[in-house]
């Protein structure tokens, strides 16, 4: 246990000593609030939308940035050759990956929860009356969890792909393409678009965009569970690859 | 499990046994066995592509061997409890993120193994990186400064064993001398120092013992002096007192069965006769000699001769990275 605590401390120092990880994380955390202001200012909300959903419109791109944070935490090491140093310090590679996972998930949760709550409060104050309110609790807890899960998915993909640009492209494509390509699949759209972490996020925010036709009729929490499930499997695969590959 | 069986005699010993690493069909390291002992500097010598770096990476548990094993103090690297406090390493690939400061790099490593934060400033001072520089991004470091940071990281845990791949790379003359003194003093404290270098003249001044490999196989594992003596053809520099006697000196020596070549700085380099025999011949033929100096080949000469004699070293260089 002490060994694991040290590994997390190691990862935390590495995280906060790089501009790339710090700034991407800060933008991820801050983005939802000006997003809510923007939506209110442009009065672009659909009449049938909820205050919660409208306030968190920009949470979707923020979620993609959260995945990029996960990628950067590991691909920065591959890109610079510091994996050698890291594995020399912590030879148990499963411990290294687990420490990164705890850091990414914990940090994103701790930042996303106040950030999305603040976005909701800002949206609530600025948006005209007449929109359905939406239930912020416990939905916001799920929204913050979606950020953690997206970060973990990025971490797993970054570990598997190693190359920084390749991993960022892959994970952003993975989050973006299902909803973009979904309509091409006709009736199967809900199955294609519905599996994306962004679909789980939209359902949690109770936005009117999250129709059963677009993202499937699976509920918000089961969707989050589905995303968490395949993210866990990808992380396990990443751990196995990390252990067997040469550093 | 291995803990109970560790005897003081194996602490700090690097034991490489039948180590093999295959990439596809190519053997980068091929059945390599040797032992590196504490209290002396052991040089690891071999041409580019000989498998030095691959061997070091396997000792450090970074690459897994196809077969065989590498143990440090009787255990694989991965089973060491606080590896940085047992083994300090510097690999050819720097292993420092350019966007991170030297200080943060070392602070992270200290946190990873429970090393007191005060060690960071101590090793920075040891390697001569001033506090202001240590707070700057390492990406702007010169090759020499990067090398000093790498050595600081290796020394961080005050380890019993040091494994350094090309530590003098990119250092200036003063830096090279500093490394040499540092390595020798660490070995004198009873630590195990294992370092590779392609600078053979440097190795000759630093190492007490040599492990020489070529194409992933062991060529020699012996004290430096013995290696030079065994592999050098001992030659003697002979100079006649009078320049006009020079051709006759050569004729006399060659007729006695010696191989004679002109030395670049004048005189003859004689192979096949020792100094006493040459002196005797000169006396018998009435040639006055100005110089009669036995010449021990430098490590570089020996090494070059060894490498040249087996064409396989030069022809196979292109293959696997060292």
Automatic annotation (TrEMBL), chain A:
Superkingdom of source: Bacteria
Stretches that traverse the bilayer: 21-41, 53-76, 97-120, 140-161, 168-186, 220-242
Keyword Iron-sulfur carried by entry: no
Keywords recorded for this protein, A-Z: Membrane, Transmembrane, Transmembrane helix
Protein name: ABC transporter permease
Organism lineage string: Bacteria, Bacillati, Actinomycetota, Actinomycetes, Kitasatosporales
